[in-house]
């Protein structure tokens, strides 16, 4: 099947598979969930969960469900400034992160 006929999520998976085939030892992924619906994001998150066992991943992503499912360590930026760094639990509980991204008060 030509790559042009693949869905957005399938194209992201193909791009990563090509990088794997070329022997990449680490991955920098910038917004891989962009433009995907919930099902596509869930599928790609599962794919990346398997990939992280093969090589380190630096993930830049706004899909917080994907970030929380995949990350060992998270740094949160607001206007280019790091406001928090920590584990999933630390980031979920950080008042400044909650105000900026998670819609909660302290």
Order of helices and strands: HEHEHEEHH
Q: What characteristic shape results from the CA principal axes? A: globular
Q: Please estimate the helix content.
A: 40-55%
Biggest sheet strand order reads: 1-2
Which spans of ≥5 residues are poorly predicted at pLDDT below 50?
none
Structural category: alpha+beta
CA distance, first residue to last residue: 50 Å
Rg result: 15 Å
- Number of helices, where a helix is a run of at least 4 consecutive DSSP H or I residues: 5
Mean pLDDT across the residues is 89
Taken as a percent bin, the fraction of beta residues is 15-25%
Number of domains: 2
Q: What summary fits the major beta sheet?
A: 2 strands, parallel
Number of separate strands: 4
Please provide a written account of the structure.
- The chain is an alpha+beta fold.
- The protein folds into two domains: 1-59, no CATH class; 72-106, no CATH class.
- 46% of the residues lie in helices and 18% in strands.
- The chain contains five helices and four strands; from the N terminus they run αβαβαββαα.
- It has helices at 8-21, 38-51, 64-70, 88-93, 95-102; strands at 27-30, 57-60, 74-78, 81-86.
- The strands form two sheets. Strands 1-2 form a two-stranded parallel sheet. The chain has a two-stranded antiparallel sheet with strand order 3-4.
- β3 and β4 form a beta hairpin.
- α1 runs parallel beside α2 (38-51).
- The longest helix has 14 residues, at 8-21.
- It is globular, with a radius of gyration of 15 Å.
- 17% of the residues are buried.
